[in-house]
Q: What sequence folds into this?
């Protein structure tokens, strides 16, 4: 998988390109909304298209536990099951198993765990994760890794990284031995680990590039480490990844994180933040996030952002959104999510345009001059 | 207010017509989705339009308590506040006060009650209800009445009805002395009471027709009385109401109720049933309601109704809807509500067409032959 029409910024590591999949092209840099359980919370496929979503993420772990693979496979894969015609990326399931479940057994082979939903036993391994992602039919499949917990001693981080490398090699081997199930192509990304240790990160990047994946993710960040460590690790890793292949910073992040990481040469992002914050009444604008539930919005009969082109801003006032939140009206979770996802995509599109015009450095300065991180009073 | 282009069925009392308002025409018979707190639960104005909604109902009582009249008035009325460009009917607030609140005082003057939300004291009277509905700016305003509780002795029902008549006379007088606030016209409907006593219902209908309202509602039904009483009272009342004015059966009902009441000459209905049932996974089809959460739907990769033209049926399978319900995904409340509201409007449109073609009797036979009331296993 290659970034086509690649254009690079002359003063930062930012780049703009295009990824081709059998479900359509993806213009990068790109933000991927998270459809945890086969639905980007509160949004329909039509909403996603209208907000500018090009690719969404599905969580293998959640879909494995509910509805289960037999349902999604008999439905014809995840695209058909959720009625989404555009690209899908699925994670390997590893991250959630390590962070959410009571682990029964972790071994060289893989992981055995118990479902929180019904207590049933499940197994994940590189091979099983590949099988599941073949059943889901995602356009981009992630290798099975161990997300190193933070903080980790260098010894622990090294051990975890070595296991990840063995698991990723098995993922790649098994992926190559199997075929897509639904007539469209699938691609496999490797995941760089190494905690906050630059030399481990370098080793990991080199090791994975040697294996030869379709794209490379940077994992194990945004897990509690200082922001500056996250940027430093990203910077170290992107220096070593192939110029013409996609780079994906997993689980990131806030608008300001996206701008900084694009400057470090990242092409792809996913995060629950825009949808989760929306459901809590935190709405993003170019001036910073606002808390639309605040008393001061009670009679503000103006949209969240009067220049915003989303359905919410074109039709509804802050006073109404605030009222809907106070009344627990279901409509507001959708309206707020539409706005935030639209904002994220607008931010990515603006970065892409500035890269294509080679004015990204100026964009970055302007963005940080205007964007008030603390505006919502968080 | 007159029903234009009125066409009557030759063998039942069913009729089809058109009501003109400053926010557009309404083709009758019509079903009005309920937007209790300034939102038809889980649906946007765009969803409502696409499902075929011509007019929606707003609850004075709920809007009075939250967000309060000053917010809606400063927003420019309920249409602007909720971004709904088509007709709105508001109730008087009386029904909810009598059924939901701790009454502090009920007198000839009106009602004083305490808000469940914040304990604040509120007053409702014919004049206050008219003022509130002027502030809301609804196209159709309801007179302030006392909804007689069921069961009621004849003496109690008579007393309650007499009070209602005095309150409705005051509503009409005050309404005539006041002006619309937002440049569009408003119309006032009277409400017939009289519990399940045919002679009281007749007295009430005659008394209100003498006062001269723009339309007439049949109130105090669907409150626990036997279905046959509801139909008998509706039959008695519609015989006495002016042929060329709209008739509205309040709070009704299930699909089978709508068909029977249209046969008795009712033009307008409202009910929370389609949206509430949707949120509980009960979806309506021409073969009866189905329980989409049932285990038997787990791998049914077909729409709820393969001939249905709603967004939900055109895009999603029962297996997916069931999964979303099991996973508590917000999207499903909207998808299910879209389907049910669309079904209700399709049912009304089918009745209207059959009346215009003078085949309503046959429609009724066909409907009841096919529609299995108990299909969802309720």
A:
């Amino acid at each position: 998988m290659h970034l086509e029409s690649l254009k690079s910024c002359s003063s930062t590591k930012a780049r703009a390109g295009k990824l081709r999949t059998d479900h359509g092209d993806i213009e990068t840099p790109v933000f991927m909304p998270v459809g945890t359980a086969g639905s980007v919370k509160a949004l329909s496929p039509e909403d996603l298209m209208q907000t500018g979503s090009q690719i969404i993420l599905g969580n293998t772990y959640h879909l494995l536990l509910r509805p289960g693979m037999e349902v999604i496979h008999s439905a014809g894969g995840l695209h058909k099951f959720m009625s989404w015609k555009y690209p899908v990326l699925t994670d390997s399931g590893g991250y959630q198993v390590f962070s959410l479940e009571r682990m029964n057994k972790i071994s060289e082979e893989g992981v055995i765990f118990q479902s929180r939903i019904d207590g049933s036993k499940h197994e994940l391994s590189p091979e099983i994760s590949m099988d599941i992602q073949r059943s889901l039919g995602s356009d981009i499949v992630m290798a099975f890794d161990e997300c190193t917990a933070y903080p980790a001693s260098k010894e622990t981080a090294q051990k975890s990284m070595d296991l990840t490398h063995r698991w990723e090699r098995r993922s790649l081997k098994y992926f190559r031995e199997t075929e897509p199930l639904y007539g469209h192509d699938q691609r496999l990304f490797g995941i760089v680990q190494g905690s906050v240790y630059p030399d481990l990160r370098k080793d990991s990047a080199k090791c994975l590039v040697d294996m030869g994946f379709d794209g490379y993710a940077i994992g194990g960040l945004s897990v509690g480490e200082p922001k500056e460590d996250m940027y430093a690790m990203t910077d170290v890793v992107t220096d070593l990844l192939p110029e013409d292949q996609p780079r994906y910073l997993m689980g990131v992040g806030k608008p300001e994180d996206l701008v900084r990481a694009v400057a470090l040469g990242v092409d792809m992002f996913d995060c629950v933040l825009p949808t989760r914050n929306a459901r809590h009444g935190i709405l993003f604008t170019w001036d910073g996030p606002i808390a639309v539930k605040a008393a001061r919005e009670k009679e503000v009969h103006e949209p969240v952002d009067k220049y915003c082109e989303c359905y919410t801003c074109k039709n509804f006032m802050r006073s109404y959104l605030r009222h809907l939140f106070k009344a627990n009206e279901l409509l507001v979770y959708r309206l707020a999510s539409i706005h935030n996802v639209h904002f994220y995509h607008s931010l990515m599109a603006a970065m892409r345009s500035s890269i294509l015009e080679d004015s990204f450095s100026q964009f970055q300065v302007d963005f940080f001059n205007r964007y008030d991180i603390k505006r919502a009073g968080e």
User: Anything to note?
Assistant: Residues 14 and 249 of chain B are 14 Å apart (CA to CA). Residues 278-370 of chain B form one domain. Chain B has two domains: 4-270, 278-370. Chain B has 15 helices and 17 strands.
